Amino acid sequence: MATNRPDTLDPALLRPGRLDRKVEIPLPNDQARLEILKIHAGPITKHGEIDYEAVVKLSEGFNGADLRNVARKRGVLAIRAEREYVLDEDFMKAVRKVSENKKLESKLDYKPV
């Protein structure tokens, strides 16, 4: 079982004897986020130089799934602009959009059922 929201788990699942071990994986640092971004950016056609360092700075607190979401959103932005390639500005807009969504998500009050 894996989750990014342990507060939403049923308390019965967390009783002793239910799970063998609890493994916490910290958020990636700047270098790790850069590598993750480059992996997800690889198969996409790019036009011009992409400032990955700026994207990494804007993505503080993002996990791997968030960075994958940035990669998908930048592709959607290029498609909406009727382009077959992504620009640096697509990355910047995508990371801001994902950041806004994360802020909204953190405001939701999840309660275990």
From TrEMBL:
GO molecular function ontology, one term from the record: ATP hydrolysis activity
Species assigned in the record: Lepeophtheirus salmonis
Pfam family name, one: AAA_lid_3
Keyword ATP-binding recorded: yes
Keywords: ATP-binding, Nucleotide-binding
Annotated AAA ATPase AAA+ lid domain residues: 50-92
Name of the protein in question: PSMC6
ATPase AAA-type core domain mapped to chain residues: 1-27
